[in-house]
């Protein structure tokens, strides 16, 4: 089970009645923030989920509406008492940007670990008060080698915008069920069952028992994808395929704005819905509206006609996404 | 006549119902902004005075609540169509900070002229669509020497805070009245009167006529002072002396918070009012409230008992200050 909060849904610049597009994921009490335009910390305070438990911040690109709230947010997280490391993921140029922003946030209570334009999946295990990140089985912070079956996998995709920009997918692994018959067949001592169920291999009386000896087949997890700002390039389809939730930009609602969308490297609602349809997503939520679009609801048919399960993000909306099936 | 807008009145961090302390001055349609915390551009949009006509931005210091809205505001001003140079004044370290922030605002439509910790007065002449700034009769932009009797004088004072911080005073010169008797006594040809009244010296038939030959004595102008964040050091008194409006921080309302004020290098309402009284200001407006102070009005007596003409700033308040006397 995952909670998704839409902190804002505007593009370009912050407006009095519309915060900038930013999304917060909450899973077992730990949090991941995607994009952080000016005012995001105010939207977060309004939401009331707290600041200390944000472990990872994913930045799509360095346009002001996606990055300018970051220094203030980091300062506020620092004031919240967090001391565990913070991971910031972003496209090419992230080191340079973070280095520049240091002038206004010289002291933070935690270490900031920068992950610039990652090509390989990042695996995340959430612990009680922090996240531990791995890439190719290497712990990113300690550089220690460790095999993991992580709770969360983050992947990125290079998009097509007027500055280097990446999309994100988050896959939350679902633990397999415990299979009593399998445990008995494999002659696993009962005393080990609960630990093996927690995915921890056990040595007992000279023999090694693995979780796979008591667990059923893997179950489908949850896939959330986040795509903004970009033209609808071919590679997006495969990247977001089968998403339980696709969050996708729709800077322009009207079909007639297609030329603006092409020029400014954004998408219309219809283009967004076409991706959702072709990628066989379960659900689409459109966000990142142009400030010129006062009422996005006027244009929802342009998406709905292509992909039925579409909704429009609004500031402060919260959605719970559950695993499908047993 | 000068309009003063209080864009926000909070300190430390932006809150859902309180923008950060920032003040906008409007004089003959041109504008000066003092401080720019995160969200200031949203407060400005709510105010509705526009972005293009901001000629000067004065920063007191580089704590997040005073500077983090600057990159976003500059980007929005750039989008507004402004092409005339923008002057940014701030304490020691301004060059380095602006250089760091460049990573997130690489392209602006106008030149940014940085004035770091100025020791001498800055004189400002507002023209139709821009400001022209001088220091010791040198045009700051063109470096050309030119004698001026400017419309506005900006002075700064080093304050005592936990980072380099400066206070500001703005003195608006009031044009002297035209003195017909004096013009006749000085045998000034009538054809020159209106140009001399506009303060432009004239050569005519081999003789030079100066504005002082037709103008009465100087009249008292308007003095606005802005003091935050600081302890109430001795030098403030002389600096703000005789202000028509003193805008001063009051981070803490309760007298009992004096130890916090000393520790965090801020002021209580009472300390703020004591400055206003001793400096013989005409009027005091207190701003920059701690986020812990939900209702500053509870504490106004602590200031009122010391200095009668005190009011408390609130987000969006606008005040017109008129020249006193004829």
TrEMBL record, chains A, B:
Residues that coordinate or bind Zn(2+) 1: 61, 63, 161, 229
Family note: Belongs to the RNase Z family.
Keywords tagged on the record: Endonuclease, Hydrolase, Metal-binding, Nuclease, tRNA processing, Zinc
Residues annotated as the enzyme's active site: 65
Cofactor: Zn(2+)
Xref: CDD domains: RNaseZ_ZiPD-like_MBL-fold
EC number of this enzyme: 3.1.26.11
Reaction(s) catalysed (UniProt annotation): Endonucleolytic cleavage of RNA, removing extra 3' nucleotides from tRNA precursor, generating 3' termini of tRNAs. A 3'-hydroxy group is left at the tRNA terminus and a 5'-phosphoryl group is left at the trailer molecule
Protein name: Ribonuclease Z
Summary of the function given for this chain in its UniProt record: Zinc phosphodiesterase, which displays some tRNA 3'-processing endonuclease activity. Probably involved in tRNA maturation, by removing a 3'-trailer from precursor tRNA.
GO molecular function, one term: 3'-tRNA processing endoribonuclease activity
Transmembrane annotation, as ranges: none
Cofactor binding remark: Binds 2 Zn(2+) ions.
Subunit comment: Homodimer.
Domain Metallo-beta-lactamase intervals: 209-289
NCBIfam families recorded: PRK00055.1-3, RNase_Z
InterPro entries assigned: Metallo-B-lactamas, RibonucZ/Hydroxyglut_hydro, RNase_Z/BN
Class of the enzyme per the UniProt entry, highest EC level: hydrolase
Residues annotated to bind Zn(2+) 2: 65-66, 229, 288
């Amino acid at each position: 089970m995952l909670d998704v909060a839409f902190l804002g849904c505007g593009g370009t610049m912050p407006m009095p009645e519309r915060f900038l597009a930013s999304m917060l994921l909450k899973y077992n009490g730990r949090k991941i923030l995607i994009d952080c335009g000016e005012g995001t910390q105010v939207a977060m305070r309004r939401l009331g989920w707290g600041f200390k438990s944000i472990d990872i911040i994913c930045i799509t690109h360095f346009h002001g509406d996606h990055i300018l709230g970051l220094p203030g947010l980091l300062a506020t997280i620092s004031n919240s008492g967090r001391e565990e490391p913070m991971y910031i993921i972003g496209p090419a140029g992230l080191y340079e940007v973070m280095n520049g922003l240091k002038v206004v946030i010289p002291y933070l209570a935690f270490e900031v670990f920068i992950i610039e334009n990652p090509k390989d999946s990042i695996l995340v295990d959430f612990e009680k008060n922090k996240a531990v990140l791995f890439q190719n089985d290497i712990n990113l912070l300690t550089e220690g080698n460790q095999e993991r079956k992580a709770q969360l996998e983050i992947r990125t995709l290079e998009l097509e915008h007027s500055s280097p920009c990446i999309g994100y997918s988050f896959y939350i692994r679902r633990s397999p069920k415990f299979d009593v018959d399998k445990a008995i067949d494999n002659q696993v001592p009962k005393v080990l069952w609960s630990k093996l169920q927690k995915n921890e291999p056990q040595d007992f009386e000279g023999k090694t028992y693995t979780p796979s000896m008591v667990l059923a087949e893997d179950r489908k997890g949850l896939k959330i994808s986040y795509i903004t700002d970009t033209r609808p390039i071919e590679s997006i389809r495969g990247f977001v395929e089968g998403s339980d939730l696709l969050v996708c930009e729709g800077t322009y609602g009207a079909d007639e704005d297609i030329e603006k969308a092409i020029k400014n490297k954004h998408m219309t609602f219809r283009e967004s819905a076409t991706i959702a349809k072709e990628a066989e997503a379960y659900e689409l939520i459109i966000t990142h509206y142009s400030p010129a679009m006062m009422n996005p609801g006027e244009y929802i048919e342009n998406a709905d006609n292509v992909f039925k399960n579409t909704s429009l993000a609004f500031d402060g909306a919260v959605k719970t996404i559950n695993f499908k099936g047993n």
